[in-house]
Structure formats: C-alpha cells, structure tokens
Amino acid sequence: MAFHYPNGQSFPLKKSAQQTLKKETTFANRGMHFEEAINQSNEYYLTHDKAVVHKKPTPLQIVKVDYPKRSAAVVKEAYFRQPSTTDYNGVYHGYHLDFEAKETKNKTSFPLKNFHQHQITHMQKCVNQQAICFVLLWFSSLNRCFFLSAEKLIDYWNEQENSRKSIPLSVIENEAIEIVPQIAPRIPYLIAVEKYLEKRSQTNV
Amino acid sequence: MAFHYPNGQSFPLKKSAQQTLKKETTFANRGMHFEEAINQSNEYYLTHDKAVVHKKPTPLQIVKVDYPKRSAAVVKEAYFRQPSTTDYNGVYHGYHLDFEAKETKNKTSFPLKNFHQHQITHMQKCVNQQAICFVLLWFSSLNRCFFLSAEKLIDYWNEQENSRKSIPLSVIENEAIEIVPQIAPRIPYLIAVEKYLEKRSQTNV
Predict the structure, then answer these.
(1) How many domains does chain A have?
(2) Distance from the B93 Cα atom to the nearest Cα atom in chain A, whole angstroms
(3) Within the 53-72 window of chain A, which residues sit less than 8 Å (CB to CB) from chain B?
(4) Which amino acid positions bind Mg(2+), per UniProt (chains A, B) (predicted)?
(5) B-chain residues near A79 (CB < 8 A)
(6) For residue A2, is it within any domain?
(7) In chain B, % of residues over pLDDT 90
C-alpha cells in the first residue's frame, strides 16, 4: 500500500512484511508471544483451507453501554468473567479440536498452576464427546513447544492433586509430541494432531 | 439465599426458581427469548453429558481497564467488534457442531437479512471441514422452530443474491427439519442433528 503525493512520488506505508520480519528477529531472543503465534497459525490454517480454528473472545459482563451520536457504541462498564471453556476450538477434517495454549519460563518442568479446575473439567467433557482435546505447552526459555493430549494432562492432574504441582520436562518429552516452530504456520500443531490420531487408532486396534 | 436480620428473621431474596417460573408463563404468550432457550438447552445437554456446546462471548476491543484497590478490574472503554464466526459451536459424539440461532416475527418467510456474508463464509469453511453446520430458525409468531443445514442455506443465499431476500416458510417446511419445543431441553436440536446425519449417510451411500 502507498499514498501518492501530488508530485507523483509514492510514500510507502510500513509494510506488514517488514513488521513480520521484525517480529521474527526478536522472537528467538526475547521469547515470542506464544498466543500471537497460535493466532497466526490459525489464520494460516484458515486461509489455506486446512482447518477452521478460532480463539474465543474474552467473556465480559457488560453493565453499561453508551450510544453517542454519529459514532460507534462504547462499552463504559464491564467486568471480566471466568471462562467456562478452553481458549481455542474448531474443526479439522471432521474432527472437533479443543485446546488451551500455555507458556512457562521454567526450564525443567511445566507448572500445573497454569491450569484451572474448570478447564480440566471442560476438557474431560470434550474427551467424553470424542473431541481431539489437548494443550500446547511453550517453554519460552528453551524455545520448545509440545502437544500434550488432554487425556494425559488429566491423568497427571489427578495424580498430582496433593503433591508436586508441575510436570517434569522429562515426562513431557516422553508423553507429549514435540512441535518444531516454523515460518508459516509458526506453530504447526496439525502435524501433532495427525501423529496423535495415528497413535490413537493403533491403540484402539 | 437469605439475609439475616438482627432479630433472627430471614429476608428471602427473590428465588431464581420463581424467576424461572415467571419466565415460563410468559414464554407462550409473548414469544420466548430464543437465545435464552438455546443457552438453557446447551446447559441441559452439558449437564446430561450429551454434548458440549457453548455460545461464544461477544467480541470486544478493550481499550481501557481500571484496576481499583480491593475490587475487581473494570473495563472502562471497549468497542464491539464484528464476529468472524457463528455464535455457537461444540462437540457431539465426535461431530463438530457449528450453528447460528435467528428469529423472526414474520409468519410466511424468513428474511435473509438476518444473516451476514461473514457468517455464510464461515459456515462454508466449516462445511468444507466436514462440520455439522446449521441454523436454528425461530418463527416467534408461529411458535415454530426449524433446523436448516448450512448447505441448504448457502444454496439459497447464493441463488437469492440479487432477487427475493427471504426464504418462504413453504420452502423451509420442505427443506428443513422441524424441532418441537419441549420442557427440557427447551429446543431439542440434537434430535434434528441425528435426523440430518441419518439423511446424509443415506445420500452418501
């Protein structure tokens, strides 16, 4: 996109490609914004007709809305509500996907305090309805990403209820599927979904 | 719930059961709040382990948040955003459900102005990913509810692009699956989903 000045010269706007490049360079050093990377991956999958996955909006209790003349309605008072589901869901090849994305700066384990009972309850209900349900775990200090199935997370959650409150990286390396970040999609989680489906079909046979 | 006064007497708060009762009695006369009926049906299906379906929160662009001492964060400025999906989705028996609920006071046709291009586009993408995608149409003046598959809605939408902008009730009676409202769940849409699946499997054979 460019603005054209009267002298015929164009004034290029900051290109989104440049912005993306800038983001990529800071990504390795300062830890990427994991949620943003997931959202961009969803966008990629959507535009390439691979899957339809969206992040759910933050639930708000709206109390007061102003309707000013000649401009858009403005919410003037609202409160955050506890979400009753995970953040992401959608459809891939007939499968219902339902997942949560979490990150930690820890290097040796993933703290379970990142999860809440209502999310675990929701994931159990989804698993019962045969959804593909999982969490994407991001170790920002290690630049490593894992797909951990809800079944395994829930097992661990129930075992750990009253003891150690984190999953050691060694357990995750064994039980989860590692996802290697790419340029596009940045977090190619559908590869992990396919591996999970393959494994599940073998186990069921 | 009750407040206790110093004299030991309790002051009962208005019971939600009474509120529900009041709503039920007005339902037949003044037309029910369709969205509320769907939400209650989702709640019923969730608690009875039949399906996990939730309404998506309204998407808001949050601009300003206050964090007062000793009380909850308050959103002080936010704007409504265009949703990029339908209102409802979830999982039933391994199937991904994705739908929109709309009502009209009309008696002879359903106006297509109730739908937006972005919703149609989203539904087409879901259909391509083999989702069970549909709209629930409520004729409030007739007390009649229909399940219309996204495939048929999209066909009609494309045909009608530049002509008559509504679907006649007679067409809906032929092409859609009628849902008879009940006590619980109030809108038993999973019955229609089952009929749709049965029909679809016969067509595919």
Answers:
(1) 1
(2) 5
(3) 54, 56-60, 62, 72
(4) 85, 87, 100, 119
(5) 72-75
(6) no
(7) 71
The complex scores an ipTM of 0.81
Q: How would you write chain B as a 3-class SS string?
A: CEEECCCCCEEECCCHHHHHHHHHHHHHHHCCCHHHHHHHHHHHHHHCCCCEEEECCCCEEEEEEECCCCCCCEEEEEEECCCCCCCEEEEECCEEEEEEEEEECCCCEEEHHHCCHHHHHHHHHHHHCCCEEEEEEEECCCCEEEEEEHHHHHHHHHHHCCCCCEEEHHHHHHHCEEECCCCCCCCCHHHHHHHHHHHHHHHHC
Tell me whether residue B70 is in a domain. no
Domain housing A175: 31-57+83-204
On whether residue B38 sits in a domain, the answer given is yes
Residue A138 belongs to some domain of the structure: yes
As averages over each run of 10 residues, the pLDDT of chain A (205 residues) reads 41 41 42 85 98 94 91 92 92 97 96 91 97 97 97 90 81 97 96 96 78
